[in-house]
Records
---
Amino acid sequence: MARLKDDTKIQSIHDAACNLLLKKGFDGLKMADVAKQAKLATGTIYIYYKTKEDLINALFTAIKQEISNELLHPKNQKTDFFSTFKSMWFAYFNYCINKPQNMLFVEQFYHSGLLTSQTLTITDTLMQPVYKFIELAQKNDIVRNLDVYFIQAQIAGAIHEIVKVSLTKKAKLTKTSIQHCFYMAWNSIRK
Amino acid sequence: MARLKDDTKIQSIHDAACNLLLKKGFDGLKMADVAKQAKLATGTIYIYYKTKEDLINALFTAIKQEISNELLHPKNQKTDFFSTFKSMWFAYFNYCINKPQNMLFVEQFYHSGLLTSQTLTITDTLMQPVYKFIELAQKNDIVRNLDVYFIQAQIAGAIHEIVKVSLTKKAKLTKTSIQHCFYMAWNSIRK
DNA sequence: TTTATAAATGAATAATTATTCATTAATTTT
DNA sequence: AAAATTAATGAATAATTATTCATTTATAAA
């Protein structure tokens, strides 16, 4: 018999926080600014999150979940490793291009000291299926034999930096250059 | 006829700031903490830097200069592209392994909104010789034909993420795995 | 339609952190 | 050795920003 919490507000708050981070850097991530950007009163954020740290942990987890869903989506499951890898690579690459603010949020806060160990455990678990997928390819002699964490670092690290270059406008991503980027990734890990 | 500024203090302040960032994330980068870590009084930092923003810009520039010196050191100049590339790759990889705090400092502040455009211009200029070096290899059909900013992003991005994995202790870098990492880099860009 | 309940507000407050400044300590020059 | 000058100190202050709370508003249930 009362007003209900509004799920769209959670999305607004998340979007506002990420967009502010992209626009102003983490120095621009003030609770009042987030509220303003989300078109809410400052206090409203505290109805949805107990503290700023809570907000950051929730947002980090939500983004990681979204990325995991994207990667593990059935549409990426092809009949051979190369095709599946290609599909997943493009899924992640496009995610980063389309939501660079989310990519940067995760990067900025991973080493921020603001994430709880629970958050780190949960988000690491989300990636396990991807690691299993790579390990299988290694057993089948398709992928270089190296700890999967480094394989994933090679692929993701390169994507992140490429997208960041594209953000600075130092260079422009075209259909051709994106193909190059994919084959850089593939050639780096294939046997 | 008076006391002189002490250059070793600048180094202390720089080291303190980077080490705090590595240990506590950018939330731990408080002027008072930096001073304490550098074994100085809070006010002393303000003799060397006008503001916190000044300190960050100076430190960013100093690290970029150090990296540039490392990369362009004559010892890396070999007779062929592959050998020179290999030498430079290891120089940068080892720099990141040995001074991850510096690597993280640069990464965290590049999109922080705290760097002046002057700082960004200066530090970009420092990398120009490296870009020229890659462009020459492209003309000689040794390296994939893609904007050098993306080539450099591919190499540096992968290194950063690999070093970060190693920092989290999720996986350990051995002589063998480092060799793998190098060949991932080389295979990604070679023609 | 009324009532009960919780969301929403935003100014006020609390907490945090950058910066200043009066004072002291060093050290260079004469 | 004394004087002059500037570095160094750290407590006090100013500025910034997270959080609270008294009040208002919206809405689900009766």
---
Amino acid sequence: MQLDHVFGALSDPTRRAIVMRLCDGEASVGELAKPFEMALPSLMKHIRILESSGLVASEKTGRVRTCSLQTEALATVEVWLAAQREIWEQRLDRLEMYVEKLKKEEKANVRKRRSK
Amino acid sequence: MQLDHVFGALSDPTRRAIVMRLCDGEASVGELAKPFEMALPSLMKHIRILESSGLVASEKTGRVRTCSLQTEALATVEVWLAAQREIWEQRLDRLEMYVEKLKKEEKANVRKRRSK
DNA sequence: GCTATAGTTAGCTTTATGGCTAACCAATCA
DNA sequence: TGATTGGTTAGCCATAAAGCTAACTATAGC
């Protein structure tokens, strides 16, 4: 599973809607297609993309294909984002500490200057 | 800030690399360009895309443009993902409870059958 | 003021994306 | 077995994406 494909898959509103729909449980291709004013083959493409991204799995029994969500992929993306934000926030913290240090030094300087 | 654009922006490896680089602090366009074997205008396009997605901000002073990360956008995506996963997991929980219920009933049935 | 540096604009190419229709296959169901 | 339903394949089109080069603008440094 690659971030590229997962982010790519989620960048389309139709596909995000499908993911949201699948959060409520499995669905057949036809069921997924209903809310959209879109030809079946077009929707199938989206499903394929979701599948190749690892976000969705599907299985065909008889003539109906049932799709379901694969949460591991969602989790992977969450982890990546959280990691980035963490690094960033650590940096902000350091910066903040540095600023605090500067402020204290400045206060000290002010006191010094006053006492001169 | 729209999910479409943020996910779209993050679906490209070059742009994710830029985001990761900016986690370590601000950088000029030139600095950002260095690690990539890519013409400047191409890289600039990526920066524009990151900017229009709200992930990155930039300001030009003199002749250098300095770019920085806007964490709110990252946070927004995280929230969306977490929400989806939560719904999904709640559903799994309900399903699990249902399965447990079924198991208990089955056990009860077995006991009944034995006592017959 | 000339030159080098840092971006920017314009315009081109190639490939990918998102949509369509029409025709097709394979299970159900009457 | 013939019609209907559910999905699939193939192939087309328009637009967007990702890259390039070449030429341009505007600051900084000498």
